[in-house]
């Protein structure tokens, strides 16, 4: 299944272009069972880190401990990537007070194509 996901996301033989931004989001308004963004997120994170790409993970729902535990259950430890600086984690909910004064680059990866609105 992971190989199929990589193929669908066009990551099987390539890496995202330098400076790219990949956004994974869940939509609560979809009927159950709905796709799980966390599954895609975990897969993308492990693929990028294994390929020695630097990653910044912005979470608007969970803290770092949650992601460490989930990835550890999948056999993928995040601590070494955090320690080396290859992975940076930003807890977006703690930064919400700055959101009203900031401008954000909006970009997403949707169905294998990079889109910048």
Descriptive report:
- The chain is an alpha+beta fold and 117 residues long.
- It has a domain of 75 residues.
- It has 4 helices and 4 strands, in the order ααβααβββ.
- It has a two-stranded parallel ribbon. A two-stranded antiparallel ribbon has the order 3-4.
- Strand 3 and strand 4 form a beta hairpin.
- The longest helix has 14 residues.
- The radius of gyration is 15 Å and the shape is globular.
- It starts with a helix and ends with a strand.
- Pathway: tRNA modification; 5-methoxycarbonylmethyl-2-thiouridine-tRNA biosynthesis.
- It holds the Pfam family ELP6.
- InterPro entries: ELP6 (IPR018627).
Name its key features.
ELP6; 117 residues; alpha+beta; two-stranded antiparallel ribbon; 14% strand; two-stranded parallel sheet; disordered C terminus; 4 helices; 32% helix
**What share of residues are in beta strands?**
5-15%
SS element count, helices: 4
Anisotropy-based shape: globular
Based on secondary structure, the structural category is alpha+beta
Give the helix level as a range of percent: 25-40%
Topology:
Layout: H1 2-8, H2 37-50, E1 55-59, H3 64-73, H4 79-84, E2 87-91, E3 108-110, E4 113-115
Parallel strand pairs: 1-2
Antiparallel strand pairs: 3-4
How would you summarize this macromolecular structure in one to three sentences?
The chain has four helices and four strands. The relative contact order is 0.16.
